[in-house]
Amino acid sequence: MSFMERTEPHALFEEWLAEAEQSEINDPNAMALATVDADGMPDVRTVLLKGHDERGFVFYTNFEGAKGQQVLATRKAALCFHWKTKRRQVRARGNIELVSDEEADAYYNSRHPQSRLGAWASDQSRPLKDRQTLVDKLAHFEEKYGTEDIPRPPHWSGFRILPDTIEFWQDGEFRLHDRVVFTPTGNGWTTQRLYP
After folding, report:
1. Catalytic-role residue among 91, 175, 179, 193
2. What number does CATH give the domain 3-111+154-194?
3. Which of 32, 124, 135, 182 could make an SS bond with 65 (beta carbons 3.0 to 4.6 A apart)?
């Protein structure tokens, strides 16, 4: 069945992600995340998708950094996956909800100890005098917590994008691409083909 004939986007996304995991050299779960700052200016950066199900797309961050502050202020975001080897793209946008403490703790505890300590040491997005300052802060928190039971910082958790649209794009010959957008209806999804 062609992806253009599908009626539910989440299973299709999982299939495309699984295929990208077989072909992309690095980070098939990398996505461009777009937010808006307090002045109404768009801001975009690459983050890693750390969870996906029928509710939406999950990523984790420091709430005190620019990204976290922007998301908390607007509770909206957009994302874009681009898998060059597959010549595919998926875009989604929607409102944001916080993940549960249980979800955040489970993911945080699955991370390498140095990454967990880094969540304490990094004053994300703020000016840094030099790299040694960061190294020293990391050493401070390693001395404080060790490398085993490192608690999750209160300013670090996850967001879930609850999509109000999900668009799938497949490259076509002579730029005659295939595009379909899924929109939730409350009890399912509607689909609409788009011109390339």
Report:
1. 175
2. 2.30.110.10
3. 124
